[in-house]
Amino acid sequence: MENEKKKRILSGIQPTGIFTLGNYIGAIRNWEKMQEEFECAYFIADLHSLTVRQEPAKLRKQVLEAYALLLACGIDPKKSLVFIQSHVHAHTELSWILSGLTQFGELSRMTQFKDKSAKHADNVNAGLFTYPVLMAADILLYQADFVPVGADQKQHLEFTRDLAERFNSRYSPTFTVPDAYISESGARVMSLQDPTKKMSKSDENPNGFVSILDTPDVIMSKFKRAVTDSDTEVVYKEGKDGINNLMSIYSILAGKTIEETEAEFAGKGYGDFKMAVGEVVVESLRPIREEFDRLKGEKAYLEEMYTEGAKIATSISNRTLSKVKRKVGLI
Ligand code: TRP
């Protein structure tokens, strides 16, 4: 084992808004765990955020907060490469080169592009269209073996694989073709108000999502109000979307199986169960919120960490970029 080269994992997250319990359970918590087994690179995708209109001062603050949040969630810059996308020039440079290998038709078929252009009909910009090309560059520069992504990013990863194979066969083997990484506990956390929809930080109803920095009182009140059903039993089954969602949150954070959770709450009502879910969430997020509050005051430390991250990321990505430039015929 010792001599075996660790596989590389890479993933990015946009800095728009404080992460939700959904981001935590579905992504960041797993990123944290993968740090031992894999060589990990995680970054704040600030350039991707520019495809939607942003207020500069607010974006600046959010990028720094997102970076601090990753560290507060246990992403350790001594174990993993943690950086800010815009600090590493190779991303946009490779993105341009790859866009010459990308067809208009492929990008037009991206469902996220279609969804986002419907949502921001007054700002269907070129960046929104070429978003997947930048994402492909992010991944391919680091020769990642695996990319943990949610269902909404699967199509972009598929596109990244196509581009990698296209480049490798047109020139010569250059890029690792990345696989999606599906973790065992990659549960999709649903909205507490409409459990048929994914929990989202852009939900207009703040009771629909839990932010990982919400205070204990706020968390408890959101769980108390969580939408359930007219049944009374805490059991996991079809049609009980609200209860199923609460059960999966509980079982993941309490480290129990769904069966154990059913047994634990047999004969108890929804009220007790919701309180128990709220409490386990409060206790899981407490250390994160405390660490975030501490880190917020450590501006110099944060700057030192992301500067160092950028240096390492630049050196890794430049290696790939210079090969690419040579292969495509740039002097
Ligand atoms: N598009 C991803 C999202 O919104 C963020 C992202 C950007 C990303 N570049 C990436 C994720 C590279 C994985 C790998 O969720």
> Which kinds of small molecule does this entry bind, naming each only once?
tryptophan
Gyration radius from CA atoms, angstroms: 21 Å
Give the helices and strands as they follow along the chain: EHEHHEHHHHEHEHHHHH
Q: What's the story with the biggest beta sheet?
A: 3 strands, parallel
**In DSSP terms, counting alpha (H) and pi (I) runs of 4 or more, how many helices?**
13
3D architecture notes:
This protein has helices spanning 21-34, 46-49, 56-72, 90-99, 104-108, 111-119, 126-141, 154-170, 216-224, 241-254, 258-264, 270-296, 299-328, and strands at residues 8-13, 39-44, 81-84, 146-148, 179-181. It has 331 residues and is mostly helical. The chain folds into 2 domains: 2-187 and 298-328, Rossmann fold, CATH 3.40.50.620; 206-293, Orthogonal Bundle (Tyrosyl-Transfer RNA Synthetase). The strands form 2 sheets. The chain has a 3-stranded parallel sheet. It has a two-stranded parallel ribbon with strand order 4-5. Helix 4 runs parallel beside helix 13, helix 9 (216-224) packs antiparallel against helix 12 and helix 10 packs across helix 12 (270-296). Residues 10-14, 45, 48, 135, 138-139, 147, 149, 153 line the site of tryptophan.
